[in-house]
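Let us walk through a complete example step by step. Step one is to write down the protein sequence. Step two is to encode the small molecule, molybdenum atom, as a SMILES string so that its atoms and bonds are unambiguous. Step three, shown after the inputs, is the structure prediction itself.
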Amino acid sequence: MATKTTKLTANHWGVGTAEVQDGRIVSIDGHHDDPDPSPINGNVADSLNGRARILRPAIRKSWLDGNPTAVARGRDAFVEVSWDRALDLVADELNRVRSTHGNEGIFAGSYGWSSAGRFHHAQSQLKRFLNTIGGFSYSEGNYSYNAALVMMPYIVGPFRQHIAQATRWTVIAEHSELVVMFGGMAMRNTQVSDGGVGTHRMRDNLRKCADAGVKFVNISPLRTDTDAFLEAEWKPVHPGSDTALMLGLSYVLWSEGLMDEAFLARYSVGFDQFEKYLSGDADGTPKTPEWAATHTGWAADDVTDLARKMAANRCMISVAAGVQRTDYGEQALWMAVTLAAMLGQIGLPGGGYTIGYGVNANVGNMERLFRWGTLPQGKNPVANVIPVAMIGEMLRNPRGNYTYKGETRQFPDARLVWWAGGNPFHHHQDLLRLHHAFQSPETVIVNDLNWTSMARHADIVLPVAAAQERDDFGAGKSDNALVPMQKLADPPGEARVEFEIFHDLAARLGTEELFAEGRSADEWLRHIWEETREVGQRNGVALPDWETFHAGDVIKLPDPSPHQVFLSDFRADPVAHPLPTPSGLIEIYSETLAGFGLPDCKGHASYFAPRDLSADEGELFLLSGQPKTRLHSQLDNGAYSLSRKIKGREPVLIHPYDAEVRGISDGDVVELFNARGRCLAGARVTDEVLEGCVFLWTGAWWDPDFDAPQARDRHGNPNALTHDERTSNLSQSPASHSARVSLRRFEGTVPEITVHAPPVLYSETD
Ligand SMILES: Nc1nc2c(c(=O)[nH]1)N[C@H]1C(S)=C(S)[C@@H](COP(=O)(O)OP(=O)(O)OC[C@H]3O[C@@H](n4cnc5c(=O)[nH]c(N)nc54)[C@H](O)[C@@H]3O)O[C@H]1N2
Ligand SMILES: Nc1nc2c(c(=O)[nH]1)N[C@H]1C(S)=C(S)[C@@H](COP(=O)(O)OP(=O)(O)OC[C@H]3O[C@@H](n4cnc5c(=O)[nH]c(N)nc54)[C@H](O)[C@@H]3O)O[C@H]1N2
Ligand SMILES: [Mo]
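Step three: the predicted structure of the complex.
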């Protein structure tokens, strides 16, 4: 008789309650305690059992044949081999590369979200293993808010503190009168938080704001960047022009005597240098509302009106992380701080600014109580670290120089590249260019669940178990829920958990003891749980033993600072609580940044128009935000994700006017193209997007047709079109929201999507 059981699992998109029957997942729903569970759960069962799962270790055919350039990476067939054979090859390659080029020749930055779980975390496992054999080159920062990570310490303080100490939404409900949101507050993004979310609080907290009568202004090219219940005023802006708009707002405050001079004097430095730029004394261009209007698409009077309202009300300025994922994205951040300082409400309940609301489920809703136990990664003796979004540059220019944080640095010469838990053919820009860059390493190794576009660019592919196929526990990086992860099903085929894979490799390389310290996976889990219990005890929180916890329900700990007001200490006493900047104050002008002498980041916030890269750039702005129906590229082949596609393509939002002049109807297959690439997508004609702007969700697996012009992507991946320039020489951050494209109806035969099925596979005996 079939036995049905209910088990718990933790995902980045929340706690899942799974129905399991005969070792297979039947369905996954949210936890009954969660007021707003994520429908992304609806993808899991199909995706885990999908055709794209990697079932056996596989080696790229030409590479195995000893003629690695015969067929390009990303186009080749694979040969399935035994685990012993695959791991022998990996060990040989590691030995060859480190003896000829040193450990710096191994690049294992391996950026990506992988999956939840404190122990079976792909990057931690990979890095711990590589540290036992002498280390590796790596990357720092992220694709999410890298410009903020680099920029904020110069002008206010570390960005992670901004997020952790963001003013709580409950405080906003009580005290704010107006919330001005650059980049909106997309509810779809608040489904997710790195490492997991116990309770989705955002919707209820925003409802409290709406019920309290707080007014919202959504300054974004997309109306649905706020949910209807907020009744936000939609004031769309041209992508990349937020800095110009904020300058126009500042000009009104300045010229109408609405700025808080006492605040500026006490809490900031350098307003006078900025003032010369604002007034036009420095460059002959006063940043008037009329000037702002020419860059933003706003009417000058609307700029004036909004500035006056901001000065007359308790006003929170919110800047979505997406706004800094643009050309010169640092400037909008600096300008938001400058504008908020001029208003003088920083540190007051419901006033000031926050960068990063909406970037995950927890910002403004929860802060972690203490550090959870985790698998230690060990020490990396190799010091070469690149900014994460320079992966393409690094592959193209081994030992080349680049500028970063005011320094000149040198890329490593990466001979072997190893990716576990991330997908550069999802996250990076200009994928055709990346495809060419990925031809240069000698060896590429990928651990993944699925035949993603990245796995297809590997020489050695190692199939791994999914989060739902292993015992672990989840505890989000910014969350306060501890979630038992109970293995729901066995991994398919010969897929294995990463700990076992690295354990076997360490045995081949003589570092088994260093890697495993004599513990099995189960013993490590208990060890890490004990560590969590100990930190809990030190913080006055009693946690049960492993058996009780792992067989039980979610444990929820309280928010340590439910009434948090960002920078309230600093406001109360800037001498006792100085900011960690050189002056201890908000740096409206930064000597440090001015001293770098960069062309694209001056000593104060400045407007630079988005790049105009070539004549074939295209006439429409292209935006590419996070998908509602999945997490990045994860679960793209799940039922919920597939249900929203149009003729199998990713939907692209097109304004009715832009559609009409091109003869495009809702539901048509369209082709987007520019100088770099092209892709197909499904037309969704809607006035929720600004005219002149199209919006294509990220995450459709890149499915290049190498026989078509520019290897046209069949599926609708925006990174077929985005550029691989970074925000600036200061932070070298991704600028994926700044691209332009042309659009037409696709007239040819619509090709099948091939990327959700495996590549051509042989077995070694064929
Ligand atoms: N155009 C454009 N591009 C963007 C963005 C944008 O706004 N526009 N946003 C950017 C942002 S903010 C981000 S964070 C990145 C996200 O980029 P990524 O984090 O790279 O995207 P994911 O799809 O989450 O990739 C995770 C991969 O890990 C695999 N995986 C899951 N669990 C495991 C595991 O246990 N072990 C192993 N080995 N693998 C596992 C999944 O199958 C998947 O292939 O994308 C960026 N790219
Ligand atoms: N469901 C789901 N949720 C997610 C993720 C996911 O993959 N799926 N990914 C998570 C991750 S890793 C991250 S980093 C966060 C990202 O969180 P965000 O960075 O906040 O999200 P984005 O979707 O990149 O951008 C938000 C909005 O900014 C607007 N925008 C873009 N460019 C501009 C501009 O120049 N000016 C203005 N004013 N607006 C602009 C776009 O309309 C876009 O919808 O989301 C997280 N949440
Ligand atoms: Mo992100």
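Step four is interpretation. The mean pLDDT is 97.
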